[in-house]
Amino acid sequence: MSVTADRPTTTRDDLVIVDVDVHVNDTPEALAPYCDAPYRRVLEHISTLPRRYLDIPGYALRLAIDLPLPDRGAGARSVHTPQQMREDLDALAVDIGILFPDHLLTMAALPDDVYAAALGRAYNAWLAEEWVSRAEGLYGAVVAAPQDPEDAAREIRRYGALDEFVGVYLPTAGVNPLWGARRYTPIFEAAAEMGLPVMLHSVGLIHAAFPFNVEQFRTILFRHPIQHEFALMANMFSMLESAIPARFPDLRIVFTEGGISWVPFTMWRLDKEYHEYRSLAPLLEHPPSHYIRKFYFSTQPIEEPERPQDLVTMLDMFDGADQVLFASDWPHHDFDHPRQVLNMPFSADAKRKIMGENALALFGIDAPVRAG
Amino acid sequence: MARISAGPADALAPGERTFVTHRNFEIGVFNVNGKFRAYRNRCPHQLGPACEGAISGTLMGSADTDWQLEWVLDGRVLLCPWHQVEFDLDTGERIRGLGERLRSYTVEVDDGELYVHV
Q1: Which residues contact B77 (CB under 8 A, 6 or more apart)?
Q2: pTM metric for this prediction
Q3: Assuming Cys at both sites, which of A202, A290, A325, B116 could form a disulfide with A286, CB separation 3.0 to 4.6 Å?
């Protein structure tokens, strides 16, 4: 499957495109050599077992309840090597990509905390050894296993010391308790100390953690937005409830794969509650919207309103030109081509920021030098 | 107006497709159950290569079917490989969309040869 067919010119030479959400295919066989005993042997065994798209290694947590229809098979696109990623991103006119996992998207739901931490360490080591490269414009996010916050904090300090790791990935699908819980404090301390933004990323998961009960939807069409946007929203509220942005004023917080249209709702709804219940959020020094305006949001899945101008209005509602980051979600089934965002009637200034400048500043990445 | 050869008509069996290039873009030429159709290889959604996608059928239902599901348009539904957007290969229209359609071209059979008028 080609991404280049009939592709008109999408970019001008002066536009840097940073894609804050692309996915590497972290198979059990790829992670096994980087995993501690005894889980290395376990991953080697898991490599021989049948698997489905985005299964967590060794577990069938992704209950697949959608009716499989004929010929709808493009959901299984994956990227297996940094060379392939570079070629794919070139075809999308993306200069720099921030790498996220495939299979470890659901790792927060793993009940075995020791195994989860071992998987996280194996992923970070694999990424460091085989994937990240400044020359190739491929940067990593340290995965923080929520099951073992002390271990995750060690991983953040270890890999955050490398220039090629520019953020911390907080697995969001199936996380229990939500990311505002006190037990995660070591993770936020380490991220703040290392100057790394934390990046929440959910995925389609049917599981007994928030947002549970989604098995009531028979189709991904109506379930998928809840699995992403509601999971992000719940974790945002949890983090505000425990005053994470007040306690860690320098910590940058990124919400990925939720689009942007849910953001104004969170500001206005929480601010309304705050009038009445401020005393129940005693550690917040300002109304919730004050903090939400400082959060970052990635574009994909970018809304596609019939009137494109409506999306510009939506962005203006939360002064999003400085806070929104382009993401494609390549190679997943619902990826956005950069031109989908570029073609929206944002101002030239907003486009430059959203497509790359905001991310370069946020992650402390130098702009690429163009040949010629 | 250009007239582009797409090869012998009898070389394109029902369910098959071929591609021609005009200037810098591609056109997919399809045999849809015996009728020839030509569409630009560009999806109106995110400009993906729609004409390279699977040809299938789809599920639909309505008051006319007493809200029962039917597998319909078998062999007539083109799925864009990027996001699975469905198009009716007979008309180029997105199925139950907002009026979007693939850019279509007239196909002529002249002395056994297929020609696309661009």
Answers
A1: B55, B56, B57, B58, B86, B87, B88, B89, B95
A2: 0.92
A3: A290
Q: What angle do CA A174, A176, A178 make, to 5 degrees?
A: 100
- Does residue A246 form part of some domain? yes
The packing angle between helices A263-277 and A231-241, to 10°, is: 30
The domain tally of chain A equals 1
Residue A110 lies in a domain: yes
Grouping H, G, I as helix, E, B as strand and the rest as coil, residue A334 is coil
Give the closest residue to A127 by CA, choosing from A201, A24, A39, A45: A24
> Which residue numbers in chain A have pLDDT < 70?
1-13, 57-62, 74-75, 370-372
Nearest-angstrom CA–CA distance, B114 and B112: 7
Range of the structural domain that residue A243 is part of: 18-363
ipTM over 0.85: no
Reported as a single tens digit per residue, the pLDDT across B34-63 is 999 999 999 999 999 999 999 999 999 999
Query: Tokens 């931490």 correspond to what residue?
Result: A117
Q: Is residue A3 part of a domain?
A: no
Q: Using the CB atoms, write b or e for A137-175: b if 16+ within 10 Å.
A: bbbbbbbbbbbbbebbbebbbbbbeeebbbbbbbbbbbb
Does residue A5 belong to any structural domain of this protein? no
Rounded to a whole number of angstroms, the distance between the first and last alpha carbons of chain B is 6
Name residue, tokens 């790498």: A99
**Please, what are the domains in chain B?**
3-117 (2.102.10.10)
For testing contact with chain B, the best of A6, A329, A330 (most B CBs within 10 A): A6
> Distance between CA A89 and CA A83 in Å, rounded?
10
How far is the CA of A181 from the CAs of A75, A187, A195, A202, A238, in angstroms?
A: 34, 11, 21, 17, 7
Separation between Cα atoms, residue A228 and residue A99, nearest integer Å: 18
Q: What is the CATH number of the domain that holds A113?
A: 3.20.20.140
Q: Which residues from A are below 8 Å from B81, CB to CB?
A: 1, 74
State the DSSP string of A151-183.
Answer: HHHHHHHHHHTSTTEEEEEEE-TT-SS-TTSGG
Tokens of A316: 């203006």
- How far is A306 from chain B, CA to nearest CA, in Å? 9
Q: Which residues of A touch B (CB under 8 A)?
A: 1-3, 5-8, 69-74, 304, 306, 333-337, 339-340
What does the DSSP assignment read for A198-226? EEEE------SSSSTTGGG-SSHHHHHHI
Q: For residue B55, what are the β-bridge partners?
A: B78
